[in-house]
Amino acid sequence: MRLDAQAVILLLVGGGMLRLAWTGAYLDYVKPYAFWLIVPAGVLLVAVAAITGVQAWRGERAGDDGHGHGEPKVAWLLLAPVVGMLLVAPGALGSYEAERTGTVVGAEESRSSYPELPDDVDPVPLTLLDYAARAIFDEGQTLEGHRIQLRGFILYEGDEPQLARMVVSCCAADARPVKIGFEGDVPAGLEPDQWVEVVGEYTPRQGRDEINGELVPYIEVESITPIPAPENEYQ
Amino acid sequence: MPHNGAVSADLADTGTDSDAPAAPRPRRGLTSIEALALLLVFGLTARPGLTELFAAPAAQAWSARFVAVCVQAFPFLVLGVALSAAISAFVPADFFHKAVPKRTALAVPVAGVAGAILPACECASVPVAGALVRRGVAPAAAFTFMLASPAINPIVVVSTFVAFPGNPEMVGARVAASLLAAVTIGWLWAKLGKAEWLRLPRHRHHDDGKWAAFWAAIRHDFLHAGGYLVIGAAIAASLNTLVPETWLAPIADHPVLGVLALAVLAVLVSICSESDAFVAASLTQFSPTAKLAFMVVGPFIDVKLAAMQAGTFGRRFAARFAPAAFVAAVAAAVLMGAVWL
What is the DSSP string of B47-77? Predict the structure, then answer.
């Protein structure tokens, strides 16, 4: 591989990462804090590309000096994530994945107490993970007597619509859903992946996830309103 | 999609065009202008085709995971190659002769504990270990450093602590099991390892000063290890997308199979060591020892790491090192699990 081709690949990888950070699309793949990792790394790669480009322009040769350790051809594979980042640009994982992965509520099992919800806010916005943990491990004690607001996307377990959100620990490769069932009247024609805001109240009803057998809590639905997808679809 | 025939034909053409000059004749590579032009043509003609090709939900999910692993790992790889380049270029060779104990048997545990100072995941520690070996550190000590560092550094300890609230013995067991296994592997290499298994990509000697050597090392190491990382990311994304989770459920209750299942899962999913504790904690059907095995095996060996180790130290090395690391990690996890959990 020649020096100038190396410069192009470094520029594309570094530039691709900076572009993800610039457009905010990085949130489809990694946690928000990763911004502070992606940007310096992207800048450094672009700098290396620039220095390599100058060397190539001055006519220096790549490091193959007859030992058989020429610049690695495997580096061409770096174009694959570049194509992925810039051309394919896949969106955040949604209902397709969530329907094939077990719900994840077990994660906070060992928490012993849940703080009271505020009385002066109505409805109280909660994350799906928080609602599920309070419903399952605390028998909904802190949820009683409050109207709750949840935001997530729609998926179907069989014919039954459910609310879900992907929980990401590291990057989207380990994304797992938290699922919550609907009790009561649900408007017909909800499309999978449609983001909705659900207002409702706690119900003791619980189901089991078909995939991993974990508990799925339910919410007594008061209203379901379609909303645009949030900037960060993961939690 | 009948009208797409022309586009895919274009695609195939540009693909072979870009490979052909690079592969067979070493002197006639691509110039950057040609490469850029090809990419531009590829981007313009292939984009509609690509969008359609990747419109299927499974393909979307696969590519999202593939890009996610790459985007998460690249910054740590950059950190690792920058550190390793700095070691190669700026740290005088005799520093390590003074700092590392002469006797390998003693150097190995010292290197293991020293692993705590590199606050990064396993993508960073592989190139750093490569630089240490090139700098004359005994390979046994460098490998122990490489294995211990992603498992026992402060970031990983804190994230494990957060992932298992009210369960500090999990943190202790993880650190102890990882150190134990890393030191065992180091001693094992000192006893049985052969230098001819190693094939380190050599760096050219630069006459134009330390900075030139520094930048050249970053460029070379990133392109090299990055290429292998891409292979690992593709395998991890495929396994995550294709292997259904339902396979795990019946095994979870079995004490022995549960441990083995999570150990193998750790190899397949290739999660960064900073956050594998959160994933382990979410696998609630499994025993604590199985979760511990997941967290000890992951930083030691996974498909992404195996690809990078093969790239950094050679394939003959990786073929022997990977199984040894796996067995040592599982054994240490089971031992610590029995003693502590």
Answer: HHHHHHHT-SHHHHHHHHHHHHHHHHHHHHH
State whether B102 and B37 are in the same domain.
no
CA distance linking residue B26 with residue B7, whole number of Å: 30
**Nearest-Cα residue of chain A relative to residue B28:** A2
- Under 8 Å CB-to-CB from B266, ≥6 apart: which residues? B276, B293, B294, B295, B297, B298, B302
- Helix (H) / strand (E) element for B172: namely helix B168-192
C-alpha B116/C-alpha B155 separation (Å) is 9
Same domain, A113 and A146: yes
CB pairs under 8 A between A and B: 232
Bridge partners of residue A224, in order along the sequence: A198
When divided into structural domains, chain B yields a total of 2
Residue of A166, A169, A212, A235 best to disrupt the B interface, most CBs of B under 10 A? A169
- Out of A87, A109, A170, closest to residue B272 by CB: A170
Q: Is A189 left (phi over 0), alpha (psi -120 to 50) or beta?
A: left
Question: What SS3 class is residue A191?
Answer: coil
A56 lies in the same domain as A43: yes
Nearest alpha carbon to residue B179 among B168, B190, B187: B187
Reported as a single tens digit per residue, the pLDDT across A51-77 is 998 888 887 655 444 333 445 678 889
User: Which residue of chain B has the CA closest to A53?
Assistant: B32
Which residue in A5, A32, A14 sits closest to A168, CA to CA? A32
The residue type of A152 is G
Q: What is the pTM of this model?
A: 0.81
Smallest CA–CA distance from A34 into chain B, residue: B72
Of A4-13, A224-233, B230-239, the poorest mean pLDDT is in B230-239
Interface pTM, i.e. ipTM: 0.90
